[in-house]
Amino acid sequence: MDAETAWQTPYNELASLIEDGFFSNDSGKIRFYAPSFMYYKTGYFCSSPTAFPSISVTGSSCSLKCKHCNGKVLDTMFPGLTPEKLFNLCVKLKKNGAIGCLISGGCLPNGSVPLDKFVDAIAKIKRELGLTIATHTGVIDYSTARRLKEAGVDAALIDIIGSNETIEEVYRMNISVDHFDKSLKALHESGIPLVPHVLVGLHHGKLKGELQALRMISKYSPSAVITIAFMPIHGTPMEQVDPPKPEDITKVLVAARLMMPNTPIVLGCMRPKGKHRKRTDTLAVQAGVSAIAFPHEEAIQLAESMDLRITFSSLCCSQIFEDIKLGP
Q1: Whose CA is closest to 155, among 55, 229, 223, 80?
Q2: Domain residues for 74?
Q3: pLDDT tens, residue order, the chain (328 aa)
Q4: Total domain count, the chain
């Protein structure tokens, strides 16, 4: 079965194939991640409160105020509003036990995160502190991508949207899918490890553009592909919107695996909780993903019952491509 066929397969048929092991993990192992920006504790693992925090270079400010987020996610991050403050914050975080961090921020009106003025500080953080650095770039040009590569950034994260309608209605941006394709190309040509994200259900909880996003991503040799999912956030214009079904999320995971069979496919941190997460995570294990962030305990138990070799990490799941190189 190819990705296009899987995409057209009815939910019940695809779920049956997944549960029957049609897409099972042939590597014999699965990795679980729990970075510091969310508390996580199960009978198997407890996250470190300091190992891998997230930082916003814009504080709580974002020009876009997308309907699904409205800048609320930024409130959970440490602010690093100037290059000096960013470096000093990383010094403090390392003293407290950090081994890396995510450097992100709100977007400018063109969809970019204003990382350009922080590149020298990031290079200094890499050189003097040795932290693992993942950056969330937003829309980006080659010049900035190349500078981030030269600064030593370990991974560039970018959400890829495959629908012009979604970009206009939810992101409130006057740009097109082509801008995301060009951003992927810029990051790929810069040589920086590329870890794109596909946000399932961003179009008011429905699938729209996710397969096109995967098609774009597949052209640029990503180091890993992370699937995340819309989850209603209180205080946003979409707080009453139902999230995508677990089967929607798994359909994207299966399509990604079939389209990019040699690329680590990951179920990332942003997705609904509770019974929804339990169903999503167990389906993801059966669908053969390489890794899951903040896994539901029943998904871990399922992986054990399938005799998969399990490892846990306090790093960001974007580092899956490096962890695979290190072995079990």
Answers
A1: 223
A2: 3-326
A3: 899 999 999 988 998 999 888 998 888 999 999 998 888 999 999 989 899 999 999 999 998 889 999 888 999 999 999 999 999 999 999 999 999 999 999 999 999 999 999 999 999 999 999 999 999 999 999 999 999 999 999 999 999 999 999 999 999 888 999 999 999 999 999 999 999 999 999 999 999 999 999 999 999 999 999 999 999 999 999 999 999 999 999 999 999 999 999 999 999 999 999 999 999 999 999 999 999 999 999 999 999 999 999 999 999 999 999 998 776 6
A4: 1
Sheet arrangement for strand 100-104: 78-79, 54-56, 100-104, 132-136, 155-159, 194-200, 225-229, 265-267, 291-293, 29-33, 309-313
Q: How far apart are CA 255 and CA 91, in angstroms?
A: 41
Strand partners, 30: 310
- CATH, residue 78: 3.20.20.70
| Among 209, 271, 306, 288, CA closest to 23 | 288
What region, left, alpha or beta, does residue 133 occupy, with left being phi > 0 and alpha being psi -120 to 50 degrees? beta
- Predicted TM-score (pTM) above 0.90: yes
